Amino acid sequence: MKHLFSTVICSLILIGSLVAQDAGITIGDSNGTTNGTIKYNSTSGFQGLHLGNWMPFTGANTSASPWTVSGSNIYFDGPGTVGIGGLSDGPALQVNGVITANMPGSSTGAVSFSSPIGLPGVIFRSNDNSSRADIRFATSGLHLGAHGAVTPPNTSLVLANNGRVGIGTTTPIQKLHVNGTFRSNTIFVDPQNSTSEGGEVVLYGAGSNNDYHIDNFDGGVRFFHSGGVAMEITDNYKIKLGPVTSTPGNFRLYVATGILTERVKIATMATADWADYVFDEDYKLKSLHEVKSFVQKNKHLPNIPSAQEIEKSGYELQKMDAKLLEKIEELYLLTIQLDEEKQQIEANNIKLQQENELLKTTQQNILTRLSKLEHTH
Fold first, then answer.
1. How far apart are CA 212 and CA 140, in angstroms?
2. Which of 49, 51, 141, 210 lies at a 20 to 30 A Cα distance from 195?
3. Last residue of a domain, one of 232, 260, 288
4. 47: Cβ–Cβ under 8 A, 6 or more apart, which residues?
């Protein structure tokens, strides 16, 4: 009973100290000069904590604290900084450590940023504040950029709300839009929705110039625009230039309308592909009479394709050059034969002339002798 009475008396004394003017609760020294004193003033109300110096929560005097209590919320309205985990050396709020933010009733972190001017976001600064990078939110999407400490941000990457990604542009018009030059070791382009057309790259023309397309067509590579196909490399390694509709023969290059060039060099596979065989000793050279008979019957030279054959199948330049050289070499051989025959005829003519002169001299001698005999008798 005595113990209970003492407890009640102490409680009444404590309540009186809480409501009395300038009353307080001291945890530590009773003189209120050390940390741990909570003070109440009957005029100003609940003043605040004593943290070495008084830090009142509210008050009208000049030493009023910037802290304001409103319901269950506490605001810091005055100048100064707040440090968590260490003193703040500049920013309004400095946290030395890790911040974990969880949504109510969930373990998912969430941090919300907003700004009455400009774009809300997060700023990353260098130690000397000479450069910074931004993650900003705009109505078009999420913007990522880097810039100096004073200059406005240069957007480097945009994740647009329409699912497009822009690099160097804030208004991407394709799924990936790069405004500038990019470099890559390998680029993969998936096929289009077609059984014949594979991946396609479009090269846009400046002004009224054509837009060129490069695609995988039937297993080959095709270069084309609205006017038609400019070049195609087929899956069997044949190259077509211009509107080539067919690729007859086992050739690698097909050109429509023609080729203009300053030089063409052709190599043969073997010496037998050239026409030097005409000069072999066992080569059967047709006589002019035989050539004449062949031409009269076939209307073209021997071993030369006719006009109908050329129209139907064309000809190989190297082989045709060899055939034409064959005819030239045959002409030279015939010319050499004719020259030899001519020389022989000329030699025979000289001999006949000499014999004729000898006959004339002999005839004259005979006539002279006959004349002398007549005069003798």
1. 31
2. 210
3. 260
4. 39, 40, 41, 54, 56, 57, 58, 59
Number of domains the chain contains:
4
In a domain, 87, yes or no: no
Give the ranges where 231-377 is alpha helix by DSSP (H).
288-298, 307-313, 317-376
Task: Indicate if 166 and 214 belong to the same structural domain.
Answer: no
340, pLDDT greater than 50: yes
Is-contact 123 136, C-beta < 8 A?
no
Domain holding 45, by residue range, is 16-80
Read off the amino acid at residue 151: T
**Do 293 and 358 fall into the same domain?**
yes
367 and 284 assigned to the same domain: yes
Residue-wise pLDDT for 38-67, tens only, equals 555 555 555 555 444 445 544 444 455 556
CA 8 vs. chain centroid, Å, equals 88
Euclidean distance between CA atoms 205 and 225, whole angstroms: 10
- CB-CB contact of 256 with 244 (8 Å): yes
* Distance, CA of 176 to CA of 291 (rounded, Å): 73
CA separation (Å) from 96 to 86, 101, 310, 324, 328?
6, 15, 90, 93, 98
Q: Are residues 311 and 256 in the same domain?
A: no
Angstrom distance (rounded) from CA 333 to CA 275: 13
- Give the whole-angstrom CA distance, residue 159 versus residue 142: 5
Type of residue at 272: A
Give the strand pairing for 253-255 and 212-217.
unpaired
Average pLDDT over residues 169-191: 90
85 phi-psi bin (left φ>0, alpha ψ -120 to 50, beta other):
left
- Tell whether 335 and 252 lie within a shared domain: no
Looking at residue 119, its pLDDT comes to 67
Rounded to an integer, the average pLDDT of 307-315 is 89
Integer CA distances (angstroms), 270 to 296, 317, 319, 376, in order: 34, 15, 12, 87
> Distance (Å, rounded) from C-alpha 10 to C-alpha 21?
19
User: Does pLDDT of 316 surpass 70?
Assistant: yes
Distance CA 115, CA 120 (A): 5
